[in-house]
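Sequence, please.
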Protein backbone atom coordinates (compact mmCIF):
# COMPACT_ATOMS: atom_id res chain seq x y z
CA UNK A 1 0.00 0.00 0.00
CA UNK A 2 1.43 3.39 -0.99
CA UNK A 3 1.20 6.30 1.44
CA UNK A 4 -0.58 9.32 0.09
CA UNK A 5 1.41 12.52 0.00
CA UNK A 6 -0.07 15.90 0.50
CA UNK A 7 0.70 18.21 -2.40
CA UNK A 8 0.02 21.70 -1.13
CA UNK A 9 1.51 24.88 -2.53
CA UNK A 10 3.92 26.49 -0.11
CA UNK A 11 5.08 29.98 -1.02
CA UNK A 12 8.59 30.88 0.04
CA UNK A 13 8.96 34.41 1.29
CA UNK A 14 9.15 36.72 -1.69
CA UNK A 15 10.20 34.24 -4.42
CA UNK A 16 6.75 33.82 -5.98
CA UNK A 17 7.32 30.09 -6.57
CA UNK A 18 5.16 27.27 -5.31
CA UNK A 19 6.74 24.52 -3.22
CA UNK A 20 5.39 21.01 -2.69
CA UNK A 21 5.04 19.48 0.74
CA UNK A 22 5.95 15.79 0.88
CA UNK A 23 4.43 15.19 4.33
CA UNK A 24 2.05 12.23 4.53
CA UNK A 25 -1.60 13.16 4.78
CA UNK A 26 -3.01 12.79 8.28
CA UNK A 27 -5.74 10.21 8.68
CA UNK A 28 -8.83 11.27 10.53
CA UNK A 29 -9.33 9.23 13.67
CA UNK A 30 -12.93 8.56 14.48
CA UNK A 31 -13.56 8.53 18.21
CA UNK A 32 -16.62 7.14 19.85
CA UNK A 33 -18.51 9.95 21.47
CA UNK A 34 -19.97 9.21 24.90
CA UNK A 35 -23.71 9.21 25.26
CA UNK A 36 -24.58 12.46 26.98
CA UNK A 37 -27.76 13.08 28.95
CA UNK A 38 -30.44 15.33 27.51
CA UNK A 39 -30.15 18.76 29.10
CA UNK A 40 -32.68 21.56 29.27
CA UNK A 41 -30.55 24.63 28.51
CA UNK A 42 -33.13 26.91 30.12
CA UNK A 43 -32.32 25.34 33.51
CA UNK A 44 -28.59 26.13 33.35
CA UNK A 45 -27.41 29.14 35.34
CA UNK A 46 -24.83 30.38 32.84
CA UNK A 47 -24.41 33.72 34.61
CA UNK A 48 -23.28 32.12 37.89
CA UNK A 49 -21.12 29.58 36.07
CA UNK A 50 -19.32 32.40 34.27
CA UNK A 51 -18.95 34.44 37.45
CA UNK A 52 -17.40 31.43 39.20
CA UNK A 53 -15.12 30.76 36.23
CA UNK A 54 -13.83 34.34 36.09
CA UNK A 55 -13.61 34.66 39.87
CA UNK A 56 -11.46 31.51 40.03
CA UNK A 57 -9.30 32.67 37.13
CA UNK A 58 -8.57 35.96 38.86
CA UNK A 59 -8.33 34.40 42.34
CA UNK A 60 -5.43 32.19 41.22
CA UNK A 61 -3.76 34.78 38.96
CA UNK A 62 -1.79 36.51 41.73
CA UNK A 63 -0.30 33.30 43.18
CA UNK A 64 0.31 32.04 39.63
CA UNK A 65 2.48 35.09 38.93
CA UNK A 66 4.52 34.53 42.12
CA UNK A 67 4.89 30.82 41.35
CA UNK A 68 5.97 31.44 37.75
CA UNK A 69 8.91 33.51 38.99
CA UNK A 70 10.25 30.53 40.95
CA UNK A 71 9.44 27.84 38.40
CA UNK A 72 6.40 26.36 40.14
CA UNK A 73 2.75 25.90 39.30
CA UNK A 74 -0.64 25.44 40.93
CA UNK A 75 0.18 21.90 42.02
CA UNK A 76 3.03 23.22 44.14
CA UNK A 77 0.71 25.89 45.54
CA UNK A 78 -1.87 23.35 46.68
CA UNK A 79 0.68 21.14 48.39
CA UNK A 80 2.49 24.02 50.14
CA UNK A 81 -0.85 25.51 51.20
CA UNK A 82 -2.29 22.37 52.80
CA UNK A 83 0.97 21.25 54.40
CA UNK A 84 1.35 24.72 55.92
CA UNK A 85 -2.24 24.72 57.15
CA UNK A 86 -1.90 21.21 58.62
CA UNK A 87 1.73 20.65 59.66
CA UNK A 88 2.46 16.99 60.33
CA UNK A 89 -0.27 15.76 58.03
CA UNK A 90 0.27 12.33 56.54
CA UNK A 91 0.83 11.89 52.82
CA UNK A 92 -2.35 9.79 52.69
CA UNK A 93 -4.34 12.72 54.13
CA UNK A 94 -2.93 15.05 51.49
CA UNK A 95 -3.87 12.55 48.79
CA UNK A 96 -7.43 12.50 50.14
CA UNK A 97 -7.68 16.29 50.27
CA UNK A 98 -6.32 16.79 46.75
CA UNK A 99 -8.16 13.70 45.39
CA UNK A 100 -5.19 12.57 43.32
CA UNK A 101 -3.03 9.46 43.01
CA UNK A 102 0.32 8.90 44.69
CA UNK A 103 2.03 9.20 41.32
CA UNK A 104 0.53 12.63 40.66
CA UNK A 105 1.64 13.88 44.07
CA UNK A 106 5.09 12.26 44.03
CA UNK A 107 6.65 14.53 41.38
CA UNK A 108 5.48 17.77 42.99
CA UNK A 109 6.28 16.66 46.53
CA UNK A 110 9.78 15.56 45.48
CA UNK A 111 10.44 18.98 43.95
CA UNK A 112 9.19 20.82 47.03
CA UNK A 113 11.37 18.68 49.30
CA UNK A 114 14.42 19.16 47.09
CA UNK A 115 13.83 22.92 46.93
CA UNK A 116 13.60 23.13 50.71
CA UNK A 117 9.92 24.05 51.10
CA UNK A 118 8.64 20.79 52.63
CA UNK A 119 10.16 18.24 55.05
CA UNK A 120 9.05 14.64 55.10
CA UNK A 121 9.54 12.69 58.32
CA UNK A 122 8.61 9.23 59.56
CA UNK A 123 5.81 9.13 62.13
CA UNK A 124 6.84 8.97 65.80
CA UNK A 125 4.63 5.97 66.63
CA UNK A 126 4.48 4.32 63.21
CA UNK A 127 7.68 4.68 61.21
CA UNK A 128 5.82 3.70 58.02
CA UNK A 129 3.80 6.89 58.16
CA UNK A 130 5.20 9.79 56.16
CA UNK A 131 4.40 13.10 57.79
CA UNK A 132 4.79 16.42 56.01
CA UNK A 133 5.93 19.71 57.51
CA UNK A 134 6.58 23.10 55.94
CA UNK A 135 10.05 24.52 56.36
CA UNK A 136 10.37 28.20 57.22
CA UNK A 137 10.74 28.89 53.49
CA UNK A 138 7.64 26.78 52.80
CA UNK A 139 5.62 28.66 55.40
CA UNK A 140 6.76 32.00 53.98
CA UNK A 141 5.84 30.87 50.47
CA UNK A 142 2.39 29.72 51.59
CA UNK A 143 1.77 33.09 53.26
CA UNK A 144 3.03 35.03 50.22
CA UNK A 145 0.65 33.06 47.98
CA UNK A 146 -2.32 33.36 50.36
CA UNK A 147 -2.01 37.09 51.06
CA UNK A 148 -3.25 38.38 47.69
CA UNK A 149 -6.06 35.83 47.73
CA UNK A 150 -7.10 36.88 51.22
CA UNK A 151 -6.99 40.52 50.12
CA UNK A 152 -9.32 39.72 47.18
CA UNK A 153 -11.76 37.98 49.53
CA UNK A 154 -11.69 40.86 52.00
CA UNK A 155 -12.24 43.43 49.23
CA UNK A 156 -15.14 41.44 47.79
CA UNK A 157 -16.82 40.94 51.17
CA UNK A 158 -16.26 44.42 52.62
CA UNK A 159 -19.70 45.68 51.61
CA UNK A 160 -21.49 42.56 52.88
CA UNK A 161 -23.31 42.31 56.18
CA UNK A 162 -22.28 39.51 58.56
CA UNK A 163 -25.31 37.58 57.27
CA UNK A 164 -24.20 38.16 53.67
CA UNK A 165 -20.72 36.90 54.49
CA UNK A 166 -22.23 33.82 56.18
CA UNK A 167 -24.34 33.22 53.05
CA UNK A 168 -21.22 33.32 50.84
CA UNK A 169 -19.40 30.88 53.16
CA UNK A 170 -22.46 28.60 53.20
CA UNK A 171 -22.77 28.75 49.39
CA UNK A 172 -19.11 27.84 48.90
CA UNK A 173 -19.40 25.01 51.41
CA UNK A 174 -22.38 23.60 49.52
CA UNK A 175 -20.41 23.75 46.25
CA UNK A 176 -17.87 21.23 47.59
CA UNK A 177 -17.97 17.55 46.68
CA UNK A 178 -18.21 15.55 43.50
CA UNK A 179 -21.34 14.38 41.80
CA UNK A 180 -21.14 10.65 42.60
CA UNK A 181 -22.81 9.81 39.28
CA UNK A 182 -19.87 11.25 37.31
CA UNK A 183 -16.79 9.18 36.52
CA UNK A 184 -13.63 10.31 38.30
CA UNK A 185 -10.97 11.36 35.81
CA UNK A 186 -7.41 11.15 37.09
CA UNK A 187 -5.56 14.16 35.78
CA UNK A 188 -2.28 15.82 36.58
CA UNK A 189 -2.34 18.28 39.46
CA UNK A 190 -1.61 21.29 37.30
Amino acid sequence: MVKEKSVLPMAAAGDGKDRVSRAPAAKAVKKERPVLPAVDEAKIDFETIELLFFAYRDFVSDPDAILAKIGMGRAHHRVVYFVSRHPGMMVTDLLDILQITKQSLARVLKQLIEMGYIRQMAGAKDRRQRRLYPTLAGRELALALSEPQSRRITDAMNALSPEGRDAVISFLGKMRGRDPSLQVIESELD
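Strands lie at 9-11, 18-20, 89-90, 118-122, 130-134.
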